[in-house]
Structures are given as C-alpha cells and as structure tokens.
Amino acid sequence: MTADRAPEGIAGWPPPALDPAGPFAGPLNVLAWVLFAMGAAVLLVVLVALGLAVFGPRRWRARLGGERLVWIGGLAFPVVVLSALLVYGLGLTSNLTQEPAPGEMRVRVTGEMWWWRVAYLDGQGREVLQDANEVHIPVGRPVVLELDSADVIHSLWIPRLSGKVDMIPGRRNLMRVQADAPGAYGGQCAEYCGGPHALMGLVVVAHAPAEFEAWRTRQSTAAVTATLASPGARVFAASGCGACHTVAGTAFNGLAGPDLSHVGSRRTLGAGILPNNHGTMAGWISDSQAIKPGNRMPAYPVLTGQELRDVSAWLESLK
Amino acid sequence: MTRWALLAAVLLAGCGESTYPPRTIAGADPAHGLAVIERVGCAACHAIPGVDWPRGRAGPSLDGFGVSPLIAGRLPNRPDVLTAWLLDPPSLAPGTAMPPSPLTEAEARDVAAYLYTLDDR
User: Fold this and answer.
1) pTM of the complete model
2) Cβ(A96)–Cβ(A175) under 8 Å?
3) Given an 8 Å threshold on Cβ–Cβ distance, is A283 in contact with B56?
4) Domain spanning B19-115, CATH architecture
5) CB-based contact B41 A312, cutoff 8 Å
6) Domain span at residue A302?
7) Is A173's pLDDT higher than 50?
8) How many CB atoms lie within 10 A of CB A301?
9) Which of A56, A175, B18, B103 is the most buried (most CB within 10 A)?
10) Number of domains chain A contains
11) Which of A277, A285, A316, A317 to mutate to test the interface with B (most CBs of B within 10 A)?
C-alpha cells in the first residue's frame, strides 16, 4: 500500500515525520536535522582522518598514530559534543511531557490489541466522553494525551504532530500535541504489539474552535437514531453485539470493543484502516478477519445479506 | 517449414478468442475507476486485482470479472446493468448484502470500466 493510497488513519509510507504541523512536532524536526548534520560532520572528519592515515604524508600519519589524538579525538571530543547535544535535545523537548497545566485539555488514549480507546477528561481527570480510534482537538491549543495500555506495550505516533511515546501497562505517559491548521492527521502504533499491529491506526482531527465545540456537543448526546425500532437495531441486539460494544442511549453497554455511539460520524473503520461507509461497514461486520486477521471481532457468517445491510445502515446512521 | 508454420497459424487462429464482445465504456477512465475503488473501500468485501490490501471475502473475488457472463450470478454483465448495479444493488437483487455505494454516476462508470479490464485468462 503506497502513501497516496493509504486510508486517512494510517500515516502512510514514508511517514511524514519531517513535515511538522504543530509546535510540539517542530522542535523534534529541528533536533532530527541537527543530529543528522552533526553525524554527517563527524563522519566527514573521520573519513578525512582515515584517508590521511592511509594515504597521507609520513608526518601526518605519525601524528594520527599518536596517543594524544586518541585522548582528544577519541574521548574529549565525543564527551563534549554528545553532552552538548544531549543538553540541547533535552531542553528542546522538555515541555513535551510536562504534567497538564490547569485548564489544559486532557485526553486519555489507551492502547488495546489492536485499536485505541479514547476518553476525554475534565480538570480532575474524570472521564466525560468516550470514543475510539479518533482524537478530536481544537486547532492552536495544546492538548495533553495521557497514554496507557490495557494489555501489551504499544506506542503512539502521530508523525506530523509528535514523536513516539510508549504506552506501558500500569504507567501514565504524557504527550503534548497541537495542530496549527484544521485537518486530519494520521497516526499509528509504533511498537510491535502482535498480530495485526501494522493495521492499528488512529486519526487526530483538528477543528476550528467553534466547530470543535459543535462536535463536542454532538458527541455528548446520544445519536437521535439510537432507537431499537429499526430492523438494523434488532439485528444488532439479536446478534449480541452489545456484549462488546456500547451505544449511548440504549441498553448496549459492552466495554470490550470500541464505543459505537457515534460510529457513523467516524472517518475510518477497523482502527484507521478502512474508509467508513455503508459497504465497508457491512464488509467489516461480515468478515473482519479477512480484512484485519487476528483482530478480536469474530466474523459473522450467520447474518443474511439483508440483515448485514440493515445493521450496517443503522450503525452508519449513528452520527 | 513455412508450410508448417502456416498450418499452425491456421489451426491456432480459432483459439484465445473472446467468447464475448469486448466490454468497453465510451469516455470512462479505468485508472480513475481504480482510484475510486480504493477511496470507497470496495476491497473490504472483494478481492480485486490491482488492490494489494484488503482482500475481503464477504463478496466474490472480482478476478476475471471483465469476462464473466453474470453480475452477482443473476444479471447480464452489460455496462449499463453494471453501472446501475454499482449505484444501487438492492434495487436489482433484493436480499443482496451489497449496499448502495457512495458513487456518482460518472464514478460508477469509471469503476465499471476498471472492472472490465480484469481478464484472468
């Protein structure tokens, strides 16, 4: 799959790591180039010294073979240069992992095999909104992502907004992101976590402030179609989907899989890997194992064509 | 030698000919059709030559679709029928699992044009 064909969630290949879109990705980009330039300069010096040691005049070769050069070039120079780079790098990135300041927006992202549980937190760290596989943020404001894992070690990477930060079971790691322009930014798991790790994508959606408030209001209320009257909802109930999935405003309150309260408004399905429409929803429900082998949702070969269309239409209506 | 070659040419002339007239759609763009297929995610249900991943199994593989006689095992595989099928399958075959796709008519024609390039012989 090439970058221009990649769905919105997956960051694509090569990952756009050198194309920062926010103030917390910028310093990392600078640091990457500084390290690359320093490495290139040192390599050049070493190659010139090597050339002189092999082909140079006798006087130069004697000097390069002396003990003094080992002390200076082999010890003093690396200690000074690497220490300076370390201090520079730590200074440049120190604000990325600081505790959230009062009033700063907080979102908890929990890595699961192989999707992302997302919860929006209030100032006290209490969950106010649940979602999955998408993080919505307002543009121009720093947002603290509080990273955790429910099973194995994952790592969150949104190349245009941040570096990689590991998600470790029982630990709370912090990552700050900010987007300067509205849009969708792909992310993915960057630490091999078994099975379909490569198909564990995330979308960060940055909205203009007013739009973000509208999104939050919509997200906070149950979708108007979350009723049990439609044939699709009856299929959902009869198939036991609610054992793993929650739909706000109904009795479906499973927690093992992604929250589906507003799944119809998501950009992707299967954790950032498929476009989201009636057809891909039906295909995912029918046989997600063909699409994302090993994921924890079973195939549903018991559903008829009509039932598949009904249940996927109902889910798509949950905006 | 020349005689034998001539004989072989005459004998082989009957082979490899299409059973069906070539299916083409005037003005449609197969390359754009493939881009649309990827945007819409048709491969979530179908294995489609030209799309590496996914290769869904909920619907039939479309390998060789360009030379297959039927759509969904029940409709004649003609350009006009295929375009109508892509836009609204349930209207032609109630009970199918394939829902209407988010396509414009022009996009559906491009997709159909791409599917008609799929010849597995």
Assistant:
1) 0.88
2) yes
3) yes
4) Orthogonal Bundle (1.10)
5) no
6) 231-316
7) yes
8) 9
9) A175
10) 3
11) A277
